[in-house]
Specification:
seven-stranded mixed β-sheet; 5 helices; binds coenzyme A; five-stranded parallel β-sheet; alpha/beta; UDP N-Acetylglucosamine Acyltransferase, domain 1; 16% strand
Length: 246
């Protein structure tokens, strides 16, 4: 009876996963459920995870990890059987997604390829992120440690997030930092995280102005016989146009 209950629960969860793919993947418009179930790697990974997780919870040794390892070979998606995942997770494309042992994912979350929900070191216990409902995590984003990503947050592609993320915010960059909260641009003296200063460019700028000063002094001492001053080209401006647009 317990086996039947587990089977019914897994079937229900997989059905929700397929619906999530159909709703949230633009490439799935007009595609039937059977086609999604049989050809979407994110769905295969979740189906295998849900079976492995149920077996793990039932105390089955070895097999859950074998399922996880085989699925990683097949899909490029690695989900630890002990991770906790809610309903309606959508993993788009999938390759390179890693979901660690103590990760906790709420309902209706979207992950793109290359997302890591990982630990920061060799700590034991809860060491992977908690991701609340309706969160979207862009491709290549790394979320590390036992942080909490608040409900409805968006994590930009390639961000590295090591601190808690407020609900309904947009977090980008490395280190990840909020640029929007509740749809509004983050205000404050240190709020401009997009146009960060470039310490190497600043050091070169300081050196070139010293060289100009020295050349001037030499020219004065040589009483006009010295070579003309070298051209100093300006370094790129720190606050240039944003290549991401917006
Ligand atoms: C972060 C994201 C979700 C956009 O969220 P949003 O709330 O609509 O935010 P905006 O587009 O208004 O961007 C907010 C600011 O962050 C910047 N930004 C957006 N995405 C960024 C990223 N990945 N890295 C760095 N900065 C980024 C924008 O330039 C903007 O800067 P500004 O305030 O100077 O104008 C989106 O840019 C993103 O990265 N999506 C992931 C998509 C993805 O992985 N697709 C893979 C498909 S295969």
């Amino acid at each position: 009876m317990a086996g039947f209950d587990a089977f019914a629960r897994v079937a229900k969860e997989v059905r929700r996963d397929v619906l999530a793919a159909r709703d949230r993947d633009p490439a799935a418009r007009g595609v039937g459920r059977i086609e999604i179930l049989t050809t979407w790697p994110g769905i295969h990974a979740l189906l295998a995870y849900r079976v492995a997780h149920a077996l793990q919870q039932a105390g089955m040794p070895l097999l859950p990890r074998l399922i996880s390892m085989f699925t990683r070979t097949l899909t490029g998606i690695e989900i630890h059987p002990s991770a906790r995942i809610g309903e309606g997770l959508f993993i788009d494309h999938g390759t390179g997604v890693v979901i660690g042992e103590t990760a906790d994912i709420g309902n209706d979350v979207t992950l793109y390829q290359g997302v890591t929900l990982g630990g920061t070191g060799f700590a034991t216990g809860k060491r992977h992120p908690t991701v609340q409902d309706n969160v979207t995590i862009g491709s290549g984003a790394k979320l590390l440690g036992p942080i909490t990503v608040g409900h409805g947050a968006k994590i930009g592609a390639n961000s590295v997030v090591i601190t808690d993320v407020p609900p309904n915010s947009t977090v980008v960059g490395n280190p990840g930092h909020p640029v929007r909260v509740d749809g509004r641009r983050v205000e404050g003296p240190d709020a401009d995280w997009i146009h960060l200063p470039d310490p190497i460019a600043e050091a070169i700028q300081a050196l070139s102005s010293r060289i100009v000063t020295l050349e001037r002094m030499l020219a004065e001492q040589a009483d006009g016989d010295a070579q003309p001053l070298a051209e100093v080209r300006p370094l790129r401006t720190v606050k240039g146009p944003n290549p991401a647009g917006g």
